Amino acid sequence: MATENAPNASQYIVHHLTHLKSSTQASLVDWSVFHLDSLFFSVGLGLLAVAAMAHLAARATSGVPGRLQAALEIMVEMVADQAKGIVHSPESRKFVAPVALTVFIWIFLMNAMDLLPVDLLPNIWAAIFGAAGHDPHHAYLRVVPTADLNATLGMSLAVLLICLYYNIKIKGIGGWMHELFTAPFGSHPVLYPINFAMQMIEFVAKTVSHGMRLFGNMYAGELIFMLIALMGAAWAGTFGSSLLWVGGVVAGTIWAIFHILIITLQAFIFMMLTLVYIGQAHESH
């Protein structure tokens, strides 16, 4: 039977699209502007990835590898091959290839949080730390950091900084400034402003699209899981007949299986674009 205070479908979606924030406003840092859930899960998953990789590295053997070691070796070789084909400087690849591997594993883990039941972690969080908002039993908590535009743009900005570093390192500050004003249309003084504007547009477009692509795909996937979860709400008699619960389970399972491909593909695309942009920083126009 439906309860009087149960949220309707619109309120359910809005609740799950609301980030966990703090009301603390310190003298130096206003924590109320930060999405604490995105920070917590992205940092936590990053540390988990580092710990897992360190554990596997410590237990690596030159003999017959275990399944996890074999999977990691395949992944490392794949990333190394991709980096070798795009970034032609062996010296640069010593840093770029590990960065690409880190990006792939980290984003994959963050994307994989979307496979958890929508209400699982918010309910656990509310039980442990207390809920925030209108629902006393359910916390505001978004567990997929890559469905937060702040997180994905932050990662794309980090890639931009690496690209700027290699532009200066490879070409020198003078060579890079010359390229900014002479490419792509030529070195005539009349074309300097146009060339510079085009270069700035290129940097901005690549950075924004890099972050937006990952965000858009993961946000859409998260929203679909929420819509499917609404079908399962009929189990408690909240949104309709019990047949919707069966449909929610079936549809959620099918979408989760398909979503495994999406979360892997999006991590791979972000990694490949990272390599491509860094590779472009090594090239002269």
Structural write-up:
- Helices cover 69% and strands 0% of the residues.
- It has 285 residues and is mostly helical.
- The chain is globular and about 70 Å long.
- The model has no long low-confidence stretch (mean pLDDT 87).
Task: Give the CA-CA distance, first to last residue.
Answer: 68 Å
Write down the Rg: 23 Å
Oligomer: single chain
Beta percentage is under 5%
The total of beta strands comes to: 0
Tell me the overall shape: globular
Described by strand count, sense and barrel closure, the largest sheet is: none
- The amount of helix comes to 55-70%
Quote the average pLDDT: 87
Q: What's the helix count?
A: 8
**What is the total domain count?**
1
Structural class: mainly alpha
Secondary-structure element series? HHHHHHHH
Q: Low-confidence runs (pLDDT<50, min 5 residues)? A: none
Secondary structure blueprint with pairings:
Layout: H1 9-16, H2 36-58, H3 67-86, H4 90-112, H5 120-129, H6 149-182, H7 192-232, H8 243-281
Helix pairs in contact: 1-7, 2-4, 3-4, 4-8, 6-7, 6-8, 7-8
In short:
The protein has 8 helices and no strands. It has 285 residues and is mostly helical.
Protein traits:
285 residues, mainly alpha, 8 helices, globular
